[in-house]
Structure formats: C-alpha cells, structure tokens
C-alpha cells in the first residue's frame, strides 16, 4: 500500500524481518539482546548520575564521558525496543515516518559518538602532553563548544539523508531484511536512481569517520611519543593506563561500525545472517561496554559505584 504525495510515493509502512535465517531462534536470541540493552541503560544512567552529583568529576574527561553516555542511550534506545518487539511479539510493521526518524537518529548519533571519541582523544592528548596547561586549554566553555560542534555536525550532515529519501518513489516491495531502518537498507527499496544518495552517504561516512580517526591517530601518536619519553617506568605505566579505557571504547565502536558499513556496500559474499547480527550488535555492544569499561578502568567512577552499592567511603 503506497501513500502518494506531490513529488513522491511511499509505503504507509515497512516490514522489518528481524534476523532472516534465524526465524525459529529469534525469540531466544532476544533474551541476551534484551539483557545487553538493560545493562546499557542502567550503566549509562549510572555514569550520568555519578558525574552529575559529584562536582569533583566536572572535568573535561568526565564531561565528555557524560556526552558519550547520553549518545549511547539515544543510539541503543532508537533501535532496541522495536527490535525486541519484532523478535518477541512479531511486531514487524514500522510506519514510514517512524522508519525515517530511526534512520536519522541512528546515523546522526553514530556521527556524534565518533565526534565525542575524537574529542576525548584530544583531551587525553592535552592532559598528557601539556599537563600544566590542560585546565586553561580545555575549560568548561571549550568542552561545551566542542560538544555543540559535534552535535551540530551530526544533525546537519545526516538530515539530508531523510530529506532526499523522502522525495523519492518507492517500489511495491516494503520488506527490509533486518531489525531496524538503516539508510542503505531503505535506499534499496527506492525505484529510482540512487547514485547521488549513495555518493552522499559515502561522503558523510568518510568525512566523519575519516576526519575523526585521523585526529584520534595523530593524538595517540603524539601521546605515545610523550609517554615513551618519560624517565620513570611508573609514570609511563600510569599514562598508558589513563588511555587504555579510551582505546578499548574506540575499538568497540569503530570495528563493528566499519564492518557493517563496508558489508552493506561491498560485502556481497558475507552471509546475510552474519551481517544482520553484526548490524544489531553494532548499536548495542558499544553502549553496553562503554560504562563497564570506564567503570572498571577509571578509579574515580569505580569508587563512586562501590560507594553507592556498599554505602562505604571509597
């Protein structure tokens, strides 16, 4: 069933299949996915609560961590409730505009997450390479402006996705063979030339991820040079320790993200079930792991969690 507009026609709804190839196992697969989502929600809300209530943590590193937690909450919540409804209750229909909203939130906040990780790398670079000037360089005002720029980049870069797709005619096929609406998956249902859309998608991906990974790489090269130049082995170990959690978070985000992105465009020989499972985990594993990694690796956060759970002073 198509709804017609002045310049385009689109389905009233799409059908999300969930995990094609594992239809008989989807009900049980939903349990670990649901548990991971609960961990992501509880973990990120805990991180936000700790940073909000402890004024000693109102420093650049923790302000960026709060931004990361908010981004993770939006990313996971934009897909997981509907995904669980599909796997548990066979609620496969998603309204057309709800699908485009999901596309927007997934891609915009993936861009925001990448930008926050870049900003956190810059913070570690300044803290380790220019420790005496760190408070004067990364003031709360500068942190806020960095966060605003990262947010605006995500919103402005991704908005054309939805606008361009909404102006195009769709084929009668309404089936999206995965658990959520993603730009390339929706684009494959369009009955028109999508060269411009695909080119713009590549431009956004490479301009965002390319720029951010270059800045992150340069930051850590400079950090490595500074750390290796420290005279004390204990000081080197401490400096490496402060970066370890951030490096783990970066790898947890970029590896599945790049796999999903490249598979959508070039991985025609990758089994669909593998691709779909990675696509599901890409938006769930980083939000789940980030608060765990920072909770374990960051002493200040770990102490506050222990204090809150046990009622003891850290």
TrEMBL record:
The keyword Transferase does not apply. Gene3D superfamilies: Rhodopsin 7-helix transmembrane proteins (1.20.1070.10). It is a multi-pass membrane protein. GO terms for molecular function: G protein-coupled receptor activity; olfactory receptor activity. PROSITE patterns: G_PROTEIN_RECEP_F1_1, G_PROTEIN_RECEP_F1_2. Residues 43-294 form the G-protein coupled receptors family 1 profile domain. Its main location: membrane. The chain crosses the membrane at residues 27-50, 62-80, 100-122, 142-166, 202-227, 239-262, 274-296. It is found in: Cell membrane; Membrane. Keywords: Cell membrane, G-protein coupled receptor, Membrane, Olfaction, Receptor, Sensory transduction, Transducer, Transmembrane, Transmembrane helix. One of its GO terms (cellular component) is plasma membrane. Putative odorant or sperm cell receptor. Odorant receptor. Belongs to the G-protein coupled receptor 1 family. PANTHER family: OLFACTORY RECEPTOR 52R1, OLFACTORY RECEPTOR 56B1-RELATED. This is Olfactory receptor. It comes from Equus asinus.
